[in-house]
TrEMBL record:
This is Tripartite tricarboxylate transporter substrate binding protein. SUPFAM superfamilies: Periplasmic binding protein-like II. It comes from the Bacteria. Keywords: Signal. Residues 1-21 form the signal peptide. The keyword Signal applies. Belongs to the UPF0065 (bug) family. Pfam families: TctC (PF03401). InterPro entries: BUG (IPR005064), Bug_dom1 (IPR042100). It comes from Sediminicoccus rosea.
Amino acid sequence: MTLPRRSLLAAPLVLPGLATAQTVDGWPNRPVRLVIAFAAGGALDAIARSMGRHMEREYGQPFVVDARSGAGGRIGTAHVGRSPGDGYTLLVTSSAAHGVAPGLYPDLPYHPMNDFTHIGLVGTAPMVLLASANAPYRDLAGLVASARARGTPVNFGSPGIGSLGHLTGELAGRTLGIPVQHVSYRGSAPAQLDLLAGQLELVSDNPSSHSGPMQAGRIRCLAVAAPARMAAFPDAPTWAEQGYPQMVASAWYGFSGPAGMTPAITQRLNASLAAWLATPEARELLRGMAMQPEGRMSPAEYTAFVASEVARWANVAREANVRVEG
């Protein structure tokens, strides 16, 4: 479904000469589509619209947001993977579709590397391990001691089977050397309710879905899977601080296009992404989602990053015997 072109500017905000100077081999000389593989109104939609407005001003051409949701992002992602690599169909993608899904779906309708030109990393949001404020442990050492003393698996909830929260929770159990049992929920909200009610021990998820109870002190963050503490939650310790520097895991958003895009257009879009991420609008938008603005990776570095994420989460899914349907 193509959304109404609300993101289009009534008139280009750059002079024609400037727009021409910024083109690459005549690109773009017509509207560019920014595909999001999830429903309109969500985080990817907001990111794509803000990015599109910036690029409309920069290039003097419309950048139209096109929401193609379904199958956890696989439908819209596959659509872009089948599109011509001419720079007129681009994808604002996520770790769900481009990092986790390849290791879960053997019949995935796209190849995460071969079918795409990867342009740059938009932002990251570290995963967190959460417990109720009433839990008998306050840190990872206490969690491990409690689990070993009782000898039974620790149950943890996530937004669903095969979600990044699920895989990160499985990885957390292996990192800590304790048995864990996954409890699947349809989204973050029901998992949070059971955590607060004492019916669930832990939740593995992104922090943005739980920021209210975290800030109110009703939910305790046992560990942030990032090299440094989050600015939004400065009291939440990292895994590294507690002796597990290898435990780094983030949800992320990225910018890609179909395979076959020229290096000149790819590099130009990478520079445009970095310029947008340096604006106050972009930084405020992403930080409001508990995300860290990125934009420092070159196309080659981002391509290597995507490949490493695909391999990493496929390995976790295999070791934990995670099976999904659909």
